[in-house]
Write a structure and sequence with these properties.
single chain, alpha/beta, 7 domains, 8-stranded mixed beta sheet, 14% strand, SEC-C domain-containing protein
């Protein structure tokens, strides 16, 4: 029987210490004659020289591979600190063997949440610091140091002096170790699992008393301050709670006249605890922690403002205690409020007393409940919903809390305040981001109990496409999240920000400004706090180049100044290889470039006004290390073109101004630098447009764009099967096509019914105007990106690398744009009579419903047209499973090819985006133009009772009416609209009325039933090129309360509709036109074919080794190629002489298929259907004839050797047939965009 050993008995290991202070074993082994064998590590630290042992322990912590293995290192450090003694010289081989055997893992270790090292800023500039594994240590330290030295709070001088000295010394000691190990700030760990790695550096990491004195003199601190961090040799190191281990708070040991930062990995946590106990020591801890709370609250308010939350003036009842939380009510949408509250402690006891935090605001649960009731029970807020953002902190100490279940219409998110602030900087949250997360989380929590904090759950939410759908298996009823799951988001945010100090001259004195990154195309940084004027720095050279402006008074002016500073920074960074050798020697101190823009630059002038500004030159001056560059108003004109000459001139003057710094840069050298790094061309950073030329890019009076969120879509996917199963059974696998069509049709119908139900709550005019405004924003965004995307690619390159990003952005925009248009069309067809004013959150839900209606309609078409036979059925998770070869395997490469072609098109059209508006010449119209107008007017007047000119006038004047009202969207009585057109546009009233009927969406009996005389395909929202689409009919007719007929529209939609009508007509795709319009369109079809054939001909003729016949080659009796019958013409006959290959190219000026129906139609036209021959048939006959009559071809080409004939169809756009056709095509189709990009190799 083993003998019991009391905690106060002597430890049987022979150390002489009490059992509870040593090995803390509860009984002797069964054989009383044998003692507990010491571990090899215990033996090692006892037998080897402590100097070497502690150096090796410090070395372990300087290895990024060991970050996260801190519990094992701390255990070893405690062993070493308990056994300080002389001994044998250290043996790394022995230590490595022990680590491999005894410290392979520790079950208490989790993946590290912090970075391995971080940048921290103090009075002496940047420091490399070790945050360890304690939570939020760097963030707390940043706030603590800010409170002590920069908050304006009055503290005892003894407190600030001691804190200053302690921080300064500990940061310097950490810096020394980091430099010895070759570390830098913001380093990630390198593999946090498995065995530790021994440091191979042959270095002494300790510091002698003399070295300490010298260091302290250098940084002007008293060397005695180190005593605040030295471990008391008499203190007991073995504690029941590892979080109270003394070495964590006093990480330096003193031994034989030397100091060892034996737990340097806990550096920042030790500093934070030092500040807290020093505040307690000098009786100012409560004042300090109140200031800390205010410091955090200031950052929270900034974060909320950056999310575009608006702080309201809603008054709350006074908090029933002097220790009140910081709190505010924010509005982020109509009838969507956020109650933001901050709960932090006002007392942190000494660690010897408690490891917790105290004096938090009392009874916070009651406060949260009372505020929610006050907000939501208000009779004026019956449709209001509330987000409670509960932010807490315990200054690094432990605190147990609970979170009460929210009431109806309330959602709660509890975040640690530092997690919230870091995510707000790294996640690019917009106003609804947290709201969507809260809704999705509440829905998930209603079915599944979760164990994890908000960051961990947010990380999962992001990984799962803004939802909590983990797999097709049954949804779990309990979820425990792995600790640290969301830490990669926090680390990513910190790396993205790259917080550090940048040197700065202030009144001639060198200091440091804490900065964070604000540019992803060059190392551009901005101060973490606004300092009263516009300031950013470029850190490409020896010292920062600060770019400032004292003119900025608002965000709009800041945006204009940033155009110039971004251009300067980007081009200077590009020129770094040529400039650093000549510039760096003169940048011993930071330099300020102060921009002084002519005030007219901020006024938004028209192109006509710009052209009238007298030409002035750039001005430069240099005083007190400030380089002032004056930018004349006349220079704007130079930035408006498609090339970068204006920016070259800006950079030319900037480089010349460097001469004032003493830099030698001859004019010839400057020109060489410009020509090498920014040659004259389309690479430009400053994009100035003339919106008079294209109203769709006009930015005035716009709402923020709203993109359909994945979160709403994910939540809808969970609800949809329940609704469908009220009408039909969904088996695990649906086998027949008819049953699949039934499922998709049922889904479409139930979604439509749900949309009718939900949309009926809203006031019709308010919802309509909101939707039209949102459509205006998405149109402007789409048109603007036709310029910004090619500009980015031309400047930054990496076209393939950006492809997926561009595709994803395009996907989000297209699905939103289509859903918005369809929703407006639904509301036009089925006006509602509700009373609620819709929020953007409400609109997002309606968009999700419409998106799924469109998707289910497309899937039904795919099955109906035999283009797809997907696997469909109910999944164990409760969702509908859908596996489609068409959408996943065939449409994906088609989409990718389209994206590449779209980018190429944008690049080709880039120059045309900078056209300058020229007022129409009031002189006589040329005869050929008048004939063109007369021909179009006659055709439209005959078929539609309104001339083509007057139809365009309606759109034009509708746009002008909006601009006159200074609004993107306006509503007008229809009678007033008619009257104004008659009077102001001099149009006959009968044509005005006829034109409106062709441009208006009106109420009808059913959304999916077209008006009499039209096919239902003209209203199905999943079809393209529909008659009753907002893209063709920009006016929406509805009634006001008095029963008057009203029209609502947006001016960009009016402009887009005019462009769409022209595009459809010229592309021979205008439907429901009438006989005369059809004749007109036929001429366009022929001309388009000829134009494209000529483009292909000219391209082929430019390819190396190609000879191209200059005309279409007829194959017919008596033709260029004499045949027994007519086989038609070869559009382009090209001969590649080196390979003796003849290419017969049939050129088809195609239009892009936008949906399943169009894809099917395009494929049937090419391949044929129901026994009818497709267009490929005649091309195959022609190919057969050419191969059978090579002699004639040889004679035509004057080539006697053997020939090979290859025939291709060349499509003007990427067409789906090659991607969705099963099997090999009878004749290859090559898209001309692919041919231009990849070259003639596609033909061989």
């Amino acid at each position: 029987m083993a003998l019991k050993i009391g905690r106060n008995d002597l430890c049987p290991c022979g150390s002489g210490k009490k059992n509870k202070k040593c090995h803390n074993i509860d009984r002797l082994p069964d054989n009383p004659g044998t003692q507990k064998t010491l571990s090899k590590m215990e033996t090692y630290v006892k037998e080897y020289d402590s100097h070497v042992v502690m150096n090796e322990i410090i070395g372990l912590q300087l290895m990024a591979e060991n970050h996260g293995k801190n519990i094992r290192i701390e255990e070893i450090a405690v062993l070493a600190a308990k056994s300080l003694s002389n001994g044998k010289p250290g043996d790394k081989a022995v230590l490595r063997e022990i680590l491999q055997r005894e410290y392979t893992a520790d079950s208490m270790e989790d993946p590290p949440e912090n970075l391995f090292t971080e940048n921290v800023v103090f009075f002496h500039g940047n420091h490399i610091a070790f945050p360890g594994i304690a939570a939020h240590t760097a963030d707390i330290f940043l706030s603590f140091s800010q409170v002590v030295f920069n908050s304006g709070t009055v503290f005892p001088k003894e407190f600030t002096d001691e804190v200053y000295q302690g921080i300064g010394l500990i940061l310097e000691l950490g810096d020394q170790l980091a430099r010895m190990a070759g570390l830098r700030g913001n380093m990630e760990s390198i593999g946090s699992k498995g065995r530790m790695k021994v440091c191979d550096l042959q270095a002494d990491f300790s510091i002698s008393e003399l070295e300490l004195e010298e260091l302290c003199q250098k940084i002007h601190v008293n060397s005695k301050i180190i005593n605040q961090f030295i471990l008391d040799p008499d203190v007991a190191l073995d504690v029941d709670d590892s979080s109270m281990m003394p070495l964590l708070f006093y990480p330096i040991t003193y031994y034989h006249g030397r100091y060892y930062f034996v737990l340097v990995s806990n550096q920042l946590n030790a500093l934070n605890e030092f500040i807290l106990r020093t505040a307690l020591k000098f009786g100012c801890q409560e004042v300090f922690l109140k200031a800390y709370r205010e410091e955090l609250w200031g950052h929270i308010r900034v974060a909320c403002a950056e999310m575009k939350w608006r702080e309201t003036d809603i008054k709350l009842d006074p908090f029933p205690d002097a220790n009140s939380p910081n709190e505010a009510i924010y509005s982020f949408d109509h009838n969507r409020l956020a109650y933001v509250t901050l709960d932090t402690p006002l007392s942190i006891p000494d660690v010897s007393v408690s490891i917790g935090s105290e004096m938090h605001p009392p009874k916070m649960d009651n406060r949260l409940r009372n505020v929610a009731n006050t907000i939501l029970d208000d009779q004026n807020r019956q449709d209001c919903q509330l987000l409670v953002l509960q932010l807490t902190d315990s200054c690094g100490r432990t605190r147990m809390g609970r979170f009460m279940k929210p009431r109806d219409r309330e959602f709660r998110l509890p975040f640690n305040v530092h997690d919230f602030l870091n995510l707000s900087k790294g996640e690019d949250w917009e106003k609804h981001s947290l709201w969507k997360f809260a809704k999705a989380l509440a829905k998930f929590n209603s079915k599944t109990q979760t164990m994890g904090d908000a960051v961990e759950l947010y990380s999962l939410y992001k990984q799962k496409s803004s939802g909590f759908y983990f797999s097709d298996d049954i949804m779990p009823d309990f979820l425990a999240v792995v600790p640290g799951e969301g830490s990669d988001l926090i680390r990513g945010s910190k790396i993205k920000q790259n917080y550090h100090a940048s040197s700065f001259l202030n009144d001639g004195m060198l200091g440091f400004l804490p900065v964070v990154s604000c540019g992803d195309f060059a190392p551009i940084y901005k101060p973490i706090r606004h300092i009263g004027y516009f300031i950013e720095s470029l850190e490409s050279f020896r010292s920062p180049i600060w770019m400032t402006s004292y003119q900025v008074k608002d965000h709009g002016m800041a945006g204009i100044v940033r155009l110039y500073t971004n251009a300067l920074s980007f081009w200077l960074d590009q020129m770094k290889p040529a400039l650093e050798a000549v510039l760096n020697p003169h940048l011993k101190l930071p330099v300020e470039i102060r921009l002084e823009l002519d005030p007219v630059i901020f006024t938004g002038m028209t192109s006509q006004e710009l052209s009238e500004i007298p030409k002035e030159e750039y001005g430069v001056a240099f005083t007190d290390n400030v380089l002032t560059i004056s930018i004349p108003g006349s220079s704007i004109w130079s930035f408006t073109g498609a090339n970068n000459e204006g920016e070259r001139e800006l950079m030319r003057h900037t480089l010349k101004s460097f001469r004032l710094l003493g830099v030698t840069l001859e004019d010839k050298t400057i020109e060489e630098i410009l020509n090498k790094f920014m040659p004259l061309g389309q690479a430009k950073m400053m994009l100035f447009f003339d919106s008079q030329e294209d109203l769709m890019i006009d930015r005035r009076w716009l709402m923020e764009p709203l993109l359909l969120s994945d979160a709403e879509k994910e939540m809808l996917m969970d609800q949809l099967p329940i609704w469908i199963m009220e009408h039909m059974v969904i088996p695990e696998q649906i086998t027949t096509r008819d049953d699949k069509k039934q499922l998709f049709n049922t889904g479409t119908n139930v979604l439509l019914e749900k949309l009718k139900e939900e949309i009926s709550r809203y006031e019709n005019a308010a919802l309509l105007v909101l939707l039209l405004n949102l459509h205006e924003s998405i149109v402007q965004k789409r048109e603007y990106e036709k310029t910004i995307i090619p500009a980015q690619l031309i400047c930054f390159g990496n076209k393939e690398g950006k492809l997926e990003e561009i595709r994803e952005n395009g996907r989000m925009q297209v699905r939103t744009s289509v859903s918005l248009r369809n929703l407006i069309e639904f509301l036009a067809a089925q006006p509602v009579k509700g009373t609620l004013i819709p929020s953007l959150d409400d609109v997002d839900r309606l968009l999700a419903l419409m998106h799924e209606i469109t998707s289910f309609g497309m899937m039904s078409d795919a099955v109906y047209f035999n283009m797809d036979d997907p696997e469909v059925g109910i999944l164990p998770s409760g969702r509908i499973g859908f596996i489609s070869d068409l959408f996943s395997e065939k449409m994906e490469p088609f989409s990718l090819a389209n994206a590449r072609a779209d980018i190429d098109s944008k690049l080709e059209d880039f120059a045309g985006r900078f056209s300058i508006y020229q007022p129409a010449d009031a002189g006589e119209i040329p005869p050929e133009v008048q004939e063109y107008i007369n021909r179009h007017d006659a055709a439209f007047l005959a078929d539609w009772s309104v001339s083509w000119s007057n139809l365009n006038k309606i759109s034009y004047y509708a746009s002008n009416f909006c601009i006159e009202e200074e609004a993107s969207v306006i509503t007008m009585r229809e009678s007033d609209f008619i009257e104004r057109l008659v009077n102001e546009a001099a149009m006959p009233e009968d044509q005005v009325c006829a034109g409106i009927e062709k441009l208006v969406l009106s109420p009808r009996d059913s959304f999916l039933k077209a008006p009499d005389g039209y096919s239902n395909n003209e209203v199905f929202p999943w079809k393209y090129n529909r008659e009753f689409s907002l893209t063709r009919r920009f006016l929406v007719r509805h009634s006001n309360d008095a029963g008057d007929s009203m029209l609502s529209w947006g001016f960009r939609s009016a402009t887009a509709a005019r462009h769409q009508m022209d595009y459809l007509m010229r592309g021979a795709r205008l439907t429901n036109g009438g006989e005369e319009i059809k004749k007109l369109i036929g001429g366009y079809a022929d001309q388009r074919g000829t134009d494209f054939r000529n483009v292909v001909h000219d391209w082929a003729a430019q390819q190396e080794g190609f000879e191209v016949i200059g005309y279409e080659v007829p194959i017919m009796p008596g033709g260029t190629l004499n045949a027994d019958k007519s086989y038609g013409d070869v559009d382009v006959l090209a001969f590649h002489r080196p390979s003796a290959t003849v290419f017969s190219l049939e050129c088809k000026n195609t239009s892009q298929a936008k949906n399943i129906h169009e894809m099917k139609t395009e494929m049937d036209r090419y391949l044929g259907r129901d026994g009818k021959k497709g267009m490929v048939h005649k091309h195959l006959e022609r190919d057969t004839w050419l191969n059978a009559n090579l002699g004639q071809v040889q004679k035509l080409l004057k080539f006697d050797d053997a020939l090979t004939v290859k025939s291709f169809m060349i499509s003007s756009q990427v067409v789906p047939t090659p991607y969705i056709r099963a099997g090999e095509l009878p004749m290859p189709i090559v898209a001309f965009p692919d041919l231009k990009r990849e070259g003639v190799g596609l033909l061989f």
